[in-house]
Structures
1.
Amino acid sequence: MRIAVLGTGVVGRTLAAALVTHGHEVTVGTRDPVASLARDGADGFGTWAAAHPTIEVGSFADAATGAELVVNALAGTASVAGVTAAGIADGTVLLDVANPLDASHGFPPSLFVANTDSLAEQLQRAQPGLRVVKSLNTMTARLMVSPLELPGFTTFVSGDDADSKAVVTRLLTELGHTDVIDLGPLETARGAEALMLVWLRLWGVVGSPMFGYRIVR
Amino acid sequence: MRIAVLGTGVVGRTLAAALVTHGHEVTVGTRDPVASLARDGADGFGTWAAAHPTIEVGSFADAATGAELVVNALAGTASVAGVTAAGIADGTVLLDVANPLDASHGFPPSLFVANTDSLAEQLQRAQPGLRVVKSLNTMTARLMVSPLELPGFTTFVSGDDADSKAVVTRLLTELGHTDVIDLGPLETARGAEALMLVWLRLWGVVGSPMFGYRIVR
């Protein structure tokens, strides 16, 4: 598949690199490619991009052109603007892995949308022609692409369109996710995003982000 | 221990009956004991009370008198008023198992407090002399008292006072809870209560309330 990843943070980089490994053609979109690529140093995006020469880096719109699937790996607060700027073709699947974190009040962050609405629904309303699927937002980036390091946890999928959930579920299976639960329509992302409120606390208690939710049943 | 259970619904009855089985002296408190006991029929509280003659039924205040631990098993919307009416002695542990469900918009309910506050914190603010501990709200009543029917799921505890969390954790262990995670201070109940947003969806997907969250780590 031709996949565009929006976002140059740890989540975006981790997903982009793994998707290439699985044989996909991957582009990465960023608001300002020149500024992003100028960030060198050990953790700089420019350094990462130089080490991944098969991954094309461009503007949100450049990256999204021709993509069969677009991944929103932007910060929650930047997601609606970034996805909108990408001008993604109607009918494209948007896999939203972001969380609506509000860090303005210190740690742990709360959510800037919750309970009766979700970031995934905000994206769907902003871009009604897309087919938004929420998934992967309930785990650390490494487990998104390397789930078999922690056997047995559950990965949730939410979305209004069965075909696009099937596309995402195939991708999840490729990456090694073994227990995928379809929670139902996109509004079930309210629950999946709210898991972040427990996740941030568990991170401290467990002492590592390498944990996951298993639905025992 | 002498334990008062506030609430005559399925959760209150299930907890009260199980706590007696484990050797505790249990009272059940209800807003209007005469009206509650008059409910006969197969599922009526009066029928249940007659079948459990060792459990004393009274007003919230009657039930709470002399209790070493009080369980809030009231509906979320009735919790602050009920706990306040009970006039519970300062220093008593209040085990809050309720969820702040707002059913006024149909199914599934949303939460009437979430994200930046919680029902547990509302109770603590309303009754600052109590030591509120949140637990057991993330599972169906049967699993609260019979967790070994579903081996391996995790039970969360939130509270500001280490001693009262230890009291509750001992009680959980007695009931058979094998994986108890202390999430931290009472404000971590925001996460535990938000799990209800996923729980209500999973109930439909799993087709049964006999499921639980395991933190795989």
2.
Amino acid sequence: MQSQATPADIEGVCAKIVALGFKPHIIPGEQRTAIGITGNPGPIDPAEFESLPGVADAIRVSKAYKLVSRETKREDTVVRVNGVPVGGERIVLCGGPCAVESREQILESARAVKAGGGELLRGGAYKPRTSPYSFQGLGEQGLRYLAEARAETGLGVVTEAVDIESFDLVESYADCVQIGARNMQNFSLLRRAGRSRKPILLKRGMSSTLEEFLMAAEYILAEGNYNVILCERGVRTFADHTRNTLDLSVVPAVQSLSHLPIIVDPSHGTGKRDKVIPMALASIAAGAKGLIVEVHPTPDRALSDGYQSLDPQQFAVLAEECYALADLLASRRRVPLAVD
Amino acid sequence: MQSQATPADIEGVCAKIVALGFKPHIIPGEQRTAIGITGNPGPIDPAEFESLPGVADAIRVSKAYKLVSRETKREDTVVRVNGVPVGGERIVLCGGPCAVESREQILESARAVKAGGGELLRGGAYKPRTSPYSFQGLGEQGLRYLAEARAETGLGVVTEAVDIESFDLVESYADCVQIGARNMQNFSLLRRAGRSRKPILLKRGMSSTLEEFLMAAEYILAEGNYNVILCERGVRTFADHTRNTLDLSVVPAVQSLSHLPIIVDPSHGTGKRDKVIPMALASIAAGAKGLIVEVHPTPDRALSDGYQSLDPQQFAVLAEECYALADLLASRRRVPLAVD
Amino acid sequence: MQSQATPADIEGVCAKIVALGFKPHIIPGEQRTAIGITGNPGPIDPAEFESLPGVADAIRVSKAYKLVSRETKREDTVVRVNGVPVGGERIVLCGGPCAVESREQILESARAVKAGGGELLRGGAYKPRTSPYSFQGLGEQGLRYLAEARAETGLGVVTEAVDIESFDLVESYADCVQIGARNMQNFSLLRRAGRSRKPILLKRGMSSTLEEFLMAAEYILAEGNYNVILCERGVRTFADHTRNTLDLSVVPAVQSLSHLPIIVDPSHGTGKRDKVIPMALASIAAGAKGLIVEVHPTPDRALSDGYQSLDPQQFAVLAEECYALADLLASRRRVPLAVD
Amino acid sequence: MQSQATPADIEGVCAKIVALGFKPHIIPGEQRTAIGITGNPGPIDPAEFESLPGVADAIRVSKAYKLVSRETKREDTVVRVNGVPVGGERIVLCGGPCAVESREQILESARAVKAGGGELLRGGAYKPRTSPYSFQGLGEQGLRYLAEARAETGLGVVTEAVDIESFDLVESYADCVQIGARNMQNFSLLRRAGRSRKPILLKRGMSSTLEEFLMAAEYILAEGNYNVILCERGVRTFADHTRNTLDLSVVPAVQSLSHLPIIVDPSHGTGKRDKVIPMALASIAAGAKGLIVEVHPTPDRALSDGYQSLDPQQFAVLAEECYALADLLASRRRVPLAVD
């Protein structure tokens, strides 16, 4: 739509789409609103829409993913999590423990994240664990502790929903619901996320191609939830010096194909504490819009993933360095970086 | 337990386990019954059980997976699907289309599988698809067609449950419920499968290690369902001459670590019709207990995966060759093949 | 060329090729001779050759590899190693230690291979080792021991050349020169192998695609040596239950694209002794023309790769089982297996 | 050795090593000289050396690689290429075409690199090509053009040796000899490089683990050449949005294990022009000591790799951005970044 398009113009286009038997998707942007169409069995003639009032352009999306495509919406999507814009000018840092272990532990973590300069708090109340005999999370109790941490620190809460049964509960407490790597192609869960009113953080699967990653996001948008943040967290390869191989090139690749913001998880992406800060910096330099990092008050006593968690002081160093780097990059943004 | 252990002996052991606050798992075998213990926070002294009546041996399982381990149960598990034993002396062939597309299509497929010598029918009524806009299956209608095909041909039905919402329905129609590769670490679904009374066919995830694969099965057994069939279906690598890289060495590897039967899917494992028969033969030679193969009456008109589906005549060739190979191998079984 | 083409016909075609400024390659077959053309900067009109005497057909090869393509030569190439045909009706077993360690060791190995039913002897006199401080092979002394083992047992000798400096020496002793996986894209070494009169065993590189594998063979043929045996030996993936992931689907894939014979190395392909026999059988079932297997008189005392070597008795079991399987497959060859 | 150790002290230690029958390696550093020992069949008692004059410490190296280990030499190695220090405080940019194609092309490239702010010139006179029919480089003519470009611009020349035959020639023209990814385990070539007096740029193999990478460098150092620069250039994975997957986490991983400098090749690492600048920045942020980048006066007319080459203006942008980033990082070096 044109930037000066009126609500009536938008309504008009949607009415036309509905009249044709298809589904309209109003994806608002800072400057202009994009309207996606799904449900059409074959191509539609752009001329059907080009002359409607307020329409700037009607484009046939050439990719298998439609609503996530930059062809559908040219400008970057900014997702607000508890008021914090993800995908805009500033980078966003989300920190916290792998799992919520106790009231004290999550409160201390939240204070550390806040003090270090983070804006969002992570922490799993429901944990997908390889073994049925491992700690599976505190469940709703964990969610309550997260809410308490938010109340005290003001940090927005990002926490994972591992299945549809727990989604309602997670959604009711969280500011942003995470879909983990193992669930990236759990299509029922993606559809449920698509019907949520909360933003979704979608992690890339361990052996997911870029196209599969974007198609997973498409599942969410196709149900009407356009607030999706993508997250690279490492893929599985033969390399054994890190737990996963962090594929940072997916950051500019996503940005050229999609309007959705992408952040990076250097904790799972490396699995080693001493690689987290270098790879955090590399992520920001590659263009990531933020980071999600494991922070624990006492990493050596963590119930899970302690070896990849930063302590509060290390997180503060990470944040300070990353903000300095982001400032530098922002100050030079006049120069066009993507060269093709 | 000793082979001559009485029900009372078994009950006695279980009572003791319960008294200690743990969970007993009675895993029946052809010769002897094994009793697994879970729920113990740390190691238990084997002496607690060794002197109980009917106990042959009390073993501490050294692996992260407990109930699936061959340490827990030495003899092969045989899973019966609609009366067909999977994991015993004979190999089992399961054939059918990727998706149930229509009544005619599934009936024709079933007749072809039956005529070709197959004993089980596959076909998805619920399909996990990379794109939200692809055909997602006929749902319950598809399940009804499968039941009709079973009624006509006598073939047992293997069909996939993609989420917990549809599990009850799938379970009520199927003789064996498939958990697909993308859901191998959908732990809620695995737990639901563990509470089912139907056998489960668990496919290896695309980038799953052997340990993760066995741990996924452990989720099912830990809930009390000991009838699990494992299935290798190819893993994701750089190699591009096949859709996935069929990792047949996982067959003997599973067999040395676990008592559960393993079969192979050469259709997804190669993604190319002309590789299916050679890899089917290779699977049997490697020791697989059966195959699950895509068969379609008219592969070129299939709604999904047609390029990797066999036509009825090709399936008949596959079956004839595989049975001949299996007969040869069975006739030579006196020779111990595993050499370590 | 037609099957009844005369030497004069062949000469005529070659003369024409030379006259055009290109390079002719006479690749003899059991039934018919193929003549490949290289050195042409662009496509040549087939009509230039179609009317020459003795020409059956002039085909433009559509692949990047030309001389190895089945388009160039339709019938299977049979490579003779010390008189043993590799690529014909019968499978060929090559056994022996990773490295020649001593006169006694290689003689005992050779006797074991011979007694077990093998026809070729493997053993490295020059070893490519990851560490500069590991045992690098006995060099020419090792070659002399191999020659002695051949003299005593009649087994043909397959041994590796690791560089051009040692190629002359290796070539002078060996019946077949092996190019190892690490050298699959050592193009100078490939060119040297192409100027050799001895057959070449070319192993697939650890992360080589099928096309790269065939292009490596093309380097050898392009220099005039058409006696190349390909060998699958496992590729590098995330899977950790075997040392490498044996990619058996490359066997039928090579066979549909190339006339060159392909064999399998289940020892390096699995890296574990107890997986060797199952994967050897799987290789034969997939259509491999032979196997190259590590055999050591006393595997536990081997200087390298002992954990994946068979002892003499295990090799005899492997050979007996594989021959029985190959006999079965040969007896059923009336049935066309590749179905597309 | 102590920082105030005299040449006589060093000589004394070496004499002792030689007297014991081992090989001494004098590896000079900015502050202190390290002396490595190889050739010992088993561990040596550190006490043998601790009391010798000038000795600061005698350490048993725990890794399979010895001379490249940071245990042997604690401070960073700085390698001088045509006077340019690689591995020190400043980052170094090396640019130039994939292959030297003509006098004009390489001179223009060199001028562009110089003007853009680069200090080293890359360009292959000998090219390892997948196909025997592709352009294989201009050979010595190409080397002469490179020398001419150096004479005009003052840029140091980095160029590849693909085999031992051409090594002497390459070495005589180059300021730094490159060993390519395909040759990372060409051990004869590594040994030859170890006997060279020119610095060596060693690229990581396509499926090389970190340990194999360091062991390949060890081959060079073991022969007496301690001037080795490591280079990450992407590894082979299933991911298909880039030509290779750039594994930047290897940068901090190398730096914690080895004293050798590591740089990154974002051109091969991504294979796509528009990903080069983001990944170049990410590399510097991860701690890389420099970059090697493909630059071509007219990328669209390049004989090889044009789609991943930058044009002169793009290279100037890359250089400006990378230097600005490196300045920022250097200015903050007070903060300890590695946190473990």
